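Hi V.,

You were right to ask for the full record rather than a summary. Here it is.
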Amino acid sequence: MGKTLAYKILEQHLVAGTLSPGEEITIKIDQTLTQDSTGTMVYLQLEAMEVNSVQTELSVAYIDHNTLQTGFENADDHEFIKSVAQRHGVLFSKPGNGICHQLHLENYGKPGKTLIGSDSHTPTGGGLGMIAIGAGGLDVAVAMAKGTYSLTAPKVVKVELKGALREWVSAKDVILYVLKQLTVKGGVGKIIEYTGEGVKNLSVTDRATITNMGAELGATTSIFPSDENTLAYLKSQGRADDYIPLSADADAVYDEELTVDLDLLTPLAAMPHSPDNVDSIEHIGEIKVDQVAIGSCTNSSYTDLMKVAAILKGKKVHPDVSLVISPGSSKIMAKMAENGALTDIINAGARVIENACGPCIGMGQSPKSGAVSLRTFNRNFKGRSGTLDANVYLVSPETAAISAVKGVLTSGMACGERLPEVAAVDFTPNDNFVVYPQGHDKNNTEVAMGPNIKPFPRNTSLPENLEAKVVLHAGDNITTDDIMPSDSRLLPYRSNIPHLSNYCFEKIDAEFSARCKEAGKCAIIGGENYGQGSSREHAALAPLYLGVKFVVAKSFARIHRSNLINSGILPLVLENPADYDAFALGDELVIENAPQQVRGETIEIKNVTKGTVCKTRANLSAQETDMILKGGKINAIKG
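Predicted structure:
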């Protein structure tokens, strides 16, 4: 029986465990990446583990989220990360260099390697044939310290691509179609592996767009083979020596299969407020557009932006539309400045902003009240743009550009214009934005710790009886943006959990933080897919600081579940989903003989208020059980 590409790479990196779906495995990690929104916590945790230097082949600290410096906080965070990077042998990418996933694709990603990053869109590297996994910050810190990462071996889903994309249809439309078919929870516990004749018709940056948004499926990661297109991309970046061919065996067996006929796809959009709420632009109709934002780690490649420039050349952005563009890297910006494409964009009336995440994470460029905003980003959760009543649609760069000109949501296939091909170019290597560790020595490198950087909260060992009061009864698909908002107002405080905790769940329930402080020991009840979205562990650390002891839900998103366990917060899945309605705000709950129950299969929660018992499961591995018993991953590591 043949092997999938994903399992070939996992097998080559297997350190412990049995490589079979559902089994706990430990793999060797070749590379890690962090970004500054999560990075300060990662490096505080790395310091707490008291290691001398990282154990990976390569680790890079990128600054791309908190680049809006309206006070000292962000600059202090950047200097802290830079100092710890120097101390431990980590490369430091300065603000302005670009977005971590685009930069890693350009400069460091290698076919067949493993990568984990403290950002949920780390699977972008799957476009190069990597096993690239988004994880919580503590998992990344441990990977740097030990060179390994533990996970449940995923199932592998085969997505067979047939044919080729038509003009005005792009890679963004491919992943939106897959999201429509599989939904935002359809990839949980799975790797999405792309195969078929259609693969050869997609460039590496096309593939990276698709694997990037595989995070919205809830998938562990997504991966494409490494082939001639991979070699062409690496050559363009001056890295041909990093190429190796990789593919699944012809007789590989998959757990599930989906076929996508690229010839039949049309321009699509994800409508408010979920990436899987997808329909054709033709069916949605010509809705009036107020703002268009092009960029993000999903769609800020050179090819994407050159298509945008070609569409805008000689035209004018509609008077009612604000168009903002953020290139993915300094190399892309420089190349577009050289060839005149940047001039075409500016002359059309677009605003060009820094090479950074920017509006994708609510860091500036929030739309006006009640606006319709078309974005080439990966998420359109309610309020993520920074405007709670905005309606955000996710579209391709081609759709975004033509719609900015027309002033209404427009399908390029219906506009009658030809879309020129983007010629391949070679990029000039430039590492002027990168700070390399010079003779790093932990004992002789001082850590720059600004006044806004506070210690991360630590849990205590599991008590005999785990008591808590229900402080929130939430619905389905609660996102990490819902739990711990991320925008220009709060991002400067990512290193200050005590301050951030005051805003925990504010979009869902403005009284949540105060209620937790009054209760002291807290429990949260959630629905399906609790904790979807970003990898930010602040969505676990803030509840930990506020006294949350366990979360009961119908199901959990992968990364958030891991972050809860890393923090010593017990994630419990209802055996009977109907029991969700048996809980109410203010109910007093207790798990008796908690350590003994955690070691077993079923965990009973007594509702003292109602006099009832609810059965749940934690489905913990041996390592996860140890972490819960000891109050989190750091405690387990340090014994």
